[in-house]
Structures are given as C-alpha cells and as structure tokens.
Amino acid sequence: DARKGFILDGFPRTVPQAAALDRMLAERELALDAVIELRVDEAALLKRIESRIAETLARGETLRDDDDPQVLHRRLASYREQTAPLVAYYKLQGVLRTVDGMAPIPQVTAAVDDELTKALASKPAPAFLKRTKPAAKKAPKSTRKSAPKGAAKKLAARGSTKVRKAPGIGKKSSKKAQGRRAAAGRVGGRAAVKPKAGKTRRR
C-alpha cells in the first residue's frame, strides 16, 4: 500500500534527523508532500492521562508504562526541547500543515486527509521532474552566392533563373547605340538598322 508513497509517524524527532531525511530523499529524487502537526493542549493531555488511569483501575486492569503523569511530563519536556523546533524547520520549507489534535478521532482523520489533498493540489512539480524543451533548430543559412560579373551570360545560357545583371545592362546606353535605335525602322515586324557600306543585317 506504500508503493506510491509512504507515511512517517513520529519521525523525524529532531532537526538533524530531518536534515538527514531531506538528503536521503534528494538522492532518490523524492520530496515530502506535507508535514502534519497535531497541535494539542498540554493541560488537556494531563487530564486525559488521569482519566485513563482511573478507568483502567476501575476495570481491574494493569496500567501501561506510559499511564503515568510523570512520564507524560518528561515526554512533553523532551518534545519542547527536541521536536518543537521542527515546526519552524518545516514551516520555512512551506510543507507544514497544522491540525487540531484535540478534536474527536473522525474529525482529526478528516482534517488530515483534507490538508493532504490541499497540499498535493498546490504543490509545484519538483525541479528534477522539470524538463526543458529542446531549442528549435535554426534553418541553415543559404550558401548560394551571387554569380560573378563575368558569369552572367554563362548562367543565362544554362537556363538559370537567378542571374545578376552585369554592369551596363538595363542602364543608359551609349550615344552611339541610342543613335542607331533612333534611326531604326520597322520592317515585317522586325527592327532594322540602316545598312553600312552596302551591307544589311537584322536583329
């Protein structure tokens, strides 16, 4: 029944024991969900012991070793000296839950169950369970370079669609070229250039 967890009753009793428990749990990647403090009234405990002694003697039964007011006083003194500092220790860790231990047993049981339920609902995931998402891979930068100036025509001949124009292409033409285009006429849908020295050529 403790496969998915555990309950420690009456342990740890001192701060050094609590620190040792924390180290052991950390090595196993475990953490406490909550620490329950059953708060009681010392005067009421003494009256309970006295009533239990009287009832046991009235039934003719043998008293237990701890059915003794002096034993209770020693236990309370030991609690105040050694165990009470655990309240501050676990309060600093944020896991301490306090329940009224003077209430009837069913009410105490229900209160403990309620505190554990609330502790589990509000507890963040331990650091060792958190997994960082892998960083998204960046797309590799293109290593393609622009064609050199003298290779523009070669790329065009191979059918490349990414050709950088060489200087002069698409810019203002020389005066000589402008004069030839101005003198050109339309013959059969083609541009003709005035012949030179009796020769003709077509574009």
Structure, described:
It is a single chain. The chain has helices at 15-27, 42-58, 69-83, 85-93, 105-122, 152-157, 175-183, and strands at residues 35-39, 96-100, 185-187, 190-192. Helix 2 packs antiparallel against helix 3. The chain is mainly α and 203 residues long. Residues 185-193 have low confidence and may be disordered. The strands form 2 sheets. A two-stranded parallel sheet has the order 1-2. It has a two-stranded antiparallel sheet with strand order 3-4. The longest helix has 18 residues, at 105-122. Helices cover 43% and strands 8% of the residues.
Average residue pLDDT: 76
Uncertain segments: 185-193
Strand content: 5-15%
Q: What is the number of strand segments?
A: 4
- Principal-axis shape equals elongated
Provide key terms for this protein.
single chain, 203 residues, mainly alpha, two-stranded parallel sheet, two-stranded antiparallel sheet, elongated
Write the layout of secondary structure elements.
Blueprint (H helix, E strand, L loop, with lengths): L14 H13 L7 E5 L2 H17 L10 H15 L1 H9 L2 E5 L4 H18 L29 H6 L17 H9 L1 E3 L2 E3 L11
Parallel strand pairs: 1-2
Antiparallel strand pairs: 3-4
Helix pairs in contact: 2-3
Provide a brief overview of the structure.
The protein has 203 residues and is mainly α.
